[in-house]
Target: Sulfur carrier protein ThiS
Amino acid sequence: MKLIINSEDILVDDSVKTVKELLVHFQIEQKAAIVEVNRVILEKSKHAEVQLANGDVVEIVHFVGGG
Model:
């Protein structure tokens, strides 16, 4: 499936069907992250419910510690 993630065309395996599975795929499911799909910001409780489709536009902002 082709998604536009943070303004980049990215191919992900067809087994990735939900936002939660996408975060697991990129190994950021345990980090504090804000996810927007097609210009709609999602509550974390909805990540497992929201289905992704070919061509969806996804923005992921996660926080990285450091100084």
